[in-house]
Amino acid sequence: MKTTIDTTNMCSHLQKKLFEENGVYHSIWIAIQDDPELTAVVRSRQLHIYRNGKKVLVLAGKSSPKIIREDKICELLPKDQT
Questions:
Q1: Can you say whether the dihedral through the CA atoms of 48, 51, 55, 58 is positive or negative?
Q2: pLDDT at 2
Q3: CA-based max dimension of the chain
């Protein structure tokens, strides 16, 4: 099942990082697509990622990602971003 999110309120910088093939968060977007336990919601122009209803990660366009709890998806963050 493909995940769809409403990108109308998403920061344009984040959209590029997430959806473009060479974007730094593109592998995270692919992981969300492939893992039925993961869901994503746009809030305050950022992408909030949940596993089984528990928030694990927040991605923003210009600021650093916020790791809420340890999760294997956090391993996909670029090393210079953590």
A1: negative
A2: 67
A3: 31
Q: For 10-66, write each residue's pLDDT tens digit.
A: 999 999 999 999 999 999 999 999 999 999 999 999 999 999 999 999 999 999 999
Handedness of CA 77, 68, 19, 60 (dihedral sign): negative
Provide CB contacts within 8 A for 5, sequence distance 6+. Answer: 40, 41, 42, 47
pTM of the model: 0.90
Q: Which residues pair with 39 in a beta bridge?
A: 50
Task: Name every residue whose Cβ is closer than 8 Å to that of residue 52 and which is 6 or more positions away in sequence.
Answer: 37
